[in-house]
Amino acid sequence: MEEESWEDLTPDKDSKEYVDEVSEGAEYSPKSDFSKAQIIYSQMEKCCSLRSEEMRPGYTTHIMDKMQNVKEVHIPDSRKKFISAVNALKSLLTPEIETLRKPEDGEDSYFENFENSKEEIKKKYLHKEKTYSLKDGQNQLYYTGREYIPEVGDILVAGVKAVSRGIMGENRIEGFWDSKVNAYYNELLDLYDVLFEDINRLIHELNYFKQEMSF
């Protein structure tokens, strides 16, 4: 009996059998029941639900279980959750926003205006990372060049301090930037409230959820 080669076992990609096999195993096909309106509706509900909660910073607490073991529990920042949900909604509606929010001559696009506003807020509250290290032949505090928004509770270098007689070191403080981090997210939240309102207007203009549309 002649042994089959690898080529003999490879299906012909132009054959009807191969096409049917791939189609049956595919997760998506042109016949799939896809409704973008349904996805938008679900995401809108999520945004409304998250924004209905009290907007408060995240924090870490400790609880004791039945075995008297202390466990660390992190409570998420409700502002971040809402912002993330609106971001997802904005991404879903990108084609519609680009079509219906076209800029006038000489003006920035909708997305450019939004991103510029975000960047301006971020610049106000950026933390410029510092470190105490050898530079130009001597130990001194200098900027590393990294700029970012820390997390609440992060331990950051706030300056220098004496660690022993004649020896200086970094003065690290937990939560050193917390007030600025919270101010950043509060201001960002205001911007996303405006974005969510505008997305609602856009959806109204599109008549996205008209009665004849099935879900």
Question: How would you describe this structure to a colleague?
Answer:
- This protein is α+β, with helices and mostly antiparallel strands and 215 residues long.
- It has 2 domains: 36-59 and 71-125 and 179-206, no CATH class; 127-175, no CATH class.
- 45% of the residues lie in helices and 23% in strands.
- It has 7 helices and 6 strands, in the order αααββαααββββα.
- The protein has helices spanning 6-9, 16-25, 36-51, 78-92, 94-100, 110-125, 178-206, and strands spanning 59-64, 70-75, 127-135, 138-148, 155-164, 167-174.
- The strands form 3 sheets. It has a two-stranded antiparallel sheet. A two-stranded antiparallel ribbon has the order 3-4. A two-stranded antiparallel sheet has the order 5-6.
- Strand 1 and strand 2 form a beta hairpin.
- The longest helix is centred in the C-terminal third of the chain and has 29 residues, at 178-206.
- The protein is flat and about 75 Å long.
- The N and C termini lie far apart (58 Å).
